[in-house]
Amino acid sequence: MRQILSSVLAGWRTGERAGLATVVRTFESAPMPVGSSMLVTAGGQAVGSVSGGCVEGAVYELGTQVALDGQPVLVRYGVSDDDAFAVGLSCGGIIDVFVEAVSRQTYPQLESVQADIDAGRPVGVATIIEHPDPSRVGRHLVVRQGGTDGNLGSPRANQAVGDDTLGLLATGRTDTLSYGPEGQRLGVGMRVFFASFTPPPRLLVFGAIDLAAALARAGSFLGFRVTVCDARAVFATPARFAGADEVVVAWPHRYLSEQFAAGLVDERTVVCVLTHDPKFDVPLLEVALRGPRLAYIGAMGSRRTHDDRMRRLREAGVGEAELARVHSPLGLDLGSRTPEETAVSIVAEIIAERWGGTGEPLGTLGRRIHPEVRPSPPRPPATTDAAPEPHPSRVG
């Protein structure tokens, strides 16, 4: 919902009631990830997407109805039995979509959630998407590191969900959790969707060169908060790196050490070392490899530069297990020539590292394109059939 939250708030502030559809669970080759949302405004405008086009029409109609009557709906979409291009997913995937009414009355905490996101404070929202008591479906609990705001219907449910989702919030995870009707951890009957709105992951680019400018643009496009750092003030200027969120003039290893000490990097952080100068990159890589584990550490350079860099790091006492974490030379073999093409090869490797991709052409793979993320079989929602019609039954 992060991408469309400003549109949601626009109607919320004027007292309108809109329909908000959110993907709360996916199976197999789902076209959009969990958390993808589509808003149907009171004026009939559609913002965002839940399926990339496959079932948008049906979800739009459902969102319009929910905006009118305020009754939440949980529905499952898969491939239509008769025609995969009817109201179904032609990709063969399955998605669970929760549609709720959003207004000042149904979601009073929404503006404070936006304030947290704007300020870079981690915040998450737990929403009941299934419950034996229909009046509790759609209730929200806002979860912050310092406490919760909202009410899921009972103190026990608030306590259990608040405690369990703190771990998800700390790692930026979005997930669906199951409980008993009053929050019993070993029970069934209540399902809660937790959306985590943590600050975007960081991409730290060291070396103020042309490739850094292209990489900053690519990283920003992928949703990273991009920092370009270089010790040379004449090169590290905001004018040269318009795609970066910030440009820092500092010795790279000192800057990264300060970021570690301040807790401003985490396991989602990506570090790309483009300096290919031992006086910069060797001490920087020492810091990167000896600090908390990062999502990706890549270093630019020729084979000769790589071998010399590894030798220097070994002499500095860096172990083989740590050295194995360095992607060097960084990027995939795409035959890149320009800075922009090289940036694509680098972010392609970052994506592959994040999701376990092989980097091989999809046409040569002997397996499904999108591996199943959850090995457990899907459990159909109690409110819908396995292959729902365009107008599914209401929750409860």
UniProtKB/TrEMBL annotation:
Record InterPro entries: MoCofactor_Util/Proc, XdhC_CoxI, XdhC_Rossmann_dom
Species classification: Bacteria, Bacillati, Actinomycetota, Actinomycetes, Micrococcales
Region (Disordered): 359-396
Domain XdhC- CoxI: 12-78, 118-180
Source domain of life: Bacteria
Pfam family, one: XdhC_C
Gene3D superfamilies xrefs: NAD(P)-binding Rossmann-like Domain (3.40.50.720)
XdhC Rossmann domain segment(s): 203-350
Record's protein name: XshC-Cox1 family protein
